[in-house]
Amino acid sequence: MTDLVSQAPRLPKAGETIHGHKFFIGFGGKGANQCVQAARLGVKTAMICKVGKDYFGDSHIRNFKDNGVHTGKVCFYRPKWTNPIAQKVEAGENAIVIVGGANMLLGPEELHRAVPVISRAKVLVCQLEISPNTSLEALRMAKQHKAKTIFNPAPAMTDLDPEFYRLSDVFCCNESEVMNVTHVNIYGIVTQPGCVVNAAPYWLMRVAGKRLSQSERAGRSAAGLVRFHVDVHVF
């Protein structure tokens, strides 16, 4: 994913045009960001993805290599573009539009070519920036090879296959994704124990924001709610 980011004093209303004060292009995609972050922390990482044979795709590969990420399982697909993401950001709030592009063409064939990488992995991280069926198959493969699995259900889906919950050791999502997969208003979580955490076996958590909910090990009720503020910086 390639981030096309506009910063403005606030998010525009529907049909409204406002002035921004900064624009930049960055490397994005949840999977790519997590991979690079792990590599910067000294972890041996590899990226399994498909990018367009274009400026954005070439730039992504250079960025992976510059950060020590193994790119031997990155596939190029010439007719499709690398996935652009339009973002508007201010004070930690954002609005994001994703265009699928080459990422959505990553399939089982590419996954099975990546078995040598997956079979040696200790942790596999997946999300929904690729086909859900492809993410599901990757999680199955990771489980077969005894790897820990982390799944981020974004962009959010309302009809997520329940197998994602069973295959995810860590199910990591933000507020809107929690409400999509549980059909529960999380702002009423304190008065609705047992509703939210039935979806995932261990965790439903806010990634970098205001709320954290940890389930009991049995996965039947909310063990606690911690509220905190996180300063968000764009860099």
From TrEMBL:
One BP term from GO: D-ribose metabolic process
Top-rank lineage group of the source organism: Eukaryota
GO molecular function: ATP binding; metal ion binding; ribokinase activity
Coiled coil: none
Every Carbohydrate kinase PfkB domain range: 2-186
Gene Ontology cellular component annotations, sorted alphabetically: cytosol
Keywords carried by this UniProt record: ATP-binding, Carbohydrate metabolism, Kinase, Magnesium, Metal-binding, Nucleotide-binding, Potassium, Transferase
Name recorded for this polypeptide: Carbohydrate kinase PfkB domain-containing protein
Gene for this chain: rbks
